[in-house]
Design a protein that fits this description.
Strands 2-1-3-4-5 form a 5-stranded parallel β-sheet, sandwiched between helices. The chain is built from 10 helices and 5 strands; from the N terminus they run H-H-E-H-H-H-E-H-H-E-H-E-H-E-H. 57% of the residues lie in helices and 10% in strands. Helix 2 packs across helix 10, helix 3 packs parallel to helix 10 and helix 7 packs parallel to helix 8. The chain is α/β, with parallel strands linked by helices. It is globular, with a radius of gyration of 18 Å.
């Protein structure tokens, strides 16, 4: 981790001193994600309720510009223009660099069909089974750390060779058993846990964007 990423992490701790206990876990999670994206992998992320919204939020921050401009590489821009000069120019001028991430909480046709035809609690695991490859990372968000569909997905991820990151509250939980890294924010009540999850993943997204698209 570079000094720029360390500075962003320190700034998070300055704003939210209670998250100091998460420093080591956040550092480890960042390093897993950096290795994943350096190797051309992708992030698979899921959660329920408010955590489902967080999953979508994370994907939004990674797949497009967050705080920095992300111009695509000049070689790719030239390739686009060579295919179609007019439309390729529009693409080259407007496409943004992305870090590959998929939220497993969408895909309504797939998820509703699977939940209707099979075991509903395996809906995230099925998507991990289909999308996941060695070198990818699975991020399971669960305020309790005991959400059945997230746990099944974590096990499926490990079986496929993915690294697993948990994002939970402070209580001992089952997701810790399967996670390579578990970020346990120091709250218990669901809404308070969620209030701390947002600055945690915002910081991780900023650190990653700075690494891959910063100067």
């Amino acid at each position: 981790m570079d000094k720029r990423q360390e500075l962003q992490l320190q700034q998070l701790m300055d704003r939210y001193p209670q998250l100091q206990v998460c420093w080591q876990a956040m550092t480890a999670a960042y390093e897993l994600l950096e290795d994943c994206f350096q190797g051309g992998g992708k992030l698979l992320v899921c959660g329920n309720g408010g955590s489902a919204s967080d999953a979508e939020h994370i994907v939004g921050e990674l797949m497009k510009e967050f705080r920095l401009k992300r111009k695509i590489y000049s070689s790719h821009a030239e390739t686009l223009k060579s295919i179609d000069s007019e439309m390729g120019t529009v693409l080259a001028e407007n496409l943004q660099g992305a870090l590959s991430a998929i939220s497993l909480t969408g895909h309504s046709s797939l998820t509703t069909a699977f939940m209707n035809d099979a075991l509903p609690e395996l809906v995230f695991a099925q998507q991990v089974n289909g999308y996941g490859q060695t070198g990818d990372v699975f991020l399971g968000i669960s305020t309790s750390g005991n959400s059945q569909n997230v746990l099944y997905a974590a096990i499926a991820a490990k079986a496929k060779g993915l690294k697993v990151i948990g994002l939970t509250g402070q209580c001992q939980n089952r997701l810790m058993q399967y996670a390579d890294v578990c970020i346990c924010v120091p709250e218990v009540d669901t809404y308070k846990v969620q209030e701390l999850h947002l600055p945690v993943y915002h910081c991780l997204c900023m650190m990653l964007e700075d690494k891959f698209f910063g100067q």
